[in-house]
Amino acid sequence: MADEETTEETTEETPAPEAAESSADAPTAEAAEPAEPEEKLHPKEARKRARSRNAGPAKTARTAEERHEERVTLRKAKAVARKRRRDQEKAKKTTTGTPTPPAEKVAGNPQVRRGTVVSAKPDKTITVRIDTARRHRKYEKIVRSSTTLHAHDETNDANEGDVVQIVECRPLSRLKRWKLVEVLERAK
């Protein structure tokens, strides 16, 4: 019995001569035949084929009504999530600090701005820089910006560096739509 076990082991370990010959012939046969060029695929098509190979088990077939019902429930869930998010943002906006209020705009009342005179070189005209600082709605960072406005100064009263108050008026020239009301603070 021991002899039979050893003979079985030896036959399993050594490959059959026919298998060795066929494996030896295979590379030479492939090398002799001209290799067929691989099919060139567009990357999207290659990705599509790779995904279709690994699709996994097929899903159970559903009726159109079942698909519609699933779509409706998903849309309802998303709507609830959107509403909750909007309510959170609204609550957050009202609780955080208030931004710099813009100039009051009431029907019939002209807007009033306060700024610093940047240039008083032209005759009867001043250039006023209006600085604004407000909190960004989404990122909560203080965003500073400035605009320059041309204002009419009838008496050439204002000088560079003065803090002035200007009021909205009818167009006086191509750029002037503001008038000087008063000089609030003189430059040093």
Provide an overview of this structure.
By secondary structure, the chain is an alpha+beta fold. The chain has a 5-stranded mixed β-barrel with strand order 1-2-3-5-4.
Along the chain, the helix and strand elements come as HHHHEEEEE
Average pLDDT confidence is 81
Outline, from the CA principal axes?
elongated
Question: Rg, please?
Answer: 41 Å
Report the helical percentage.
Answer: 25-40%
Name of the top-level CATH class of the domain at 112-185: Mainly Beta
Q: Strand fraction band?
A: 15-25%
Query: What's the end-to-end separation, in Å?
Result: 118 Å
Strand order of the largest sheet: 1-2-3-5-4
The total beta strand count reads 5
Here the CATH topology of the domain at 112-185 equals OB fold (Dihydrolipoamide Acetyltransferase, E2P)
The DSSP helix count reads 4
- Return the structural class: alpha+beta
**CATH homologous superfamily title of the domain at 112-185:** Nucleic acid-binding proteins
Can you give keywords for this protein?
188 residues, alpha+beta, OB fold (Dihydrolipoamide Acetyltransferase, E2P), 5-stranded mixed beta barrel, 38% helix
Could you give a short description of this structure?
The protein has helices at about 1-15, 15-30, 45-55, 65-95; strands spanning about 110-120, 125-135, 140-150, 165-170, 175-185.
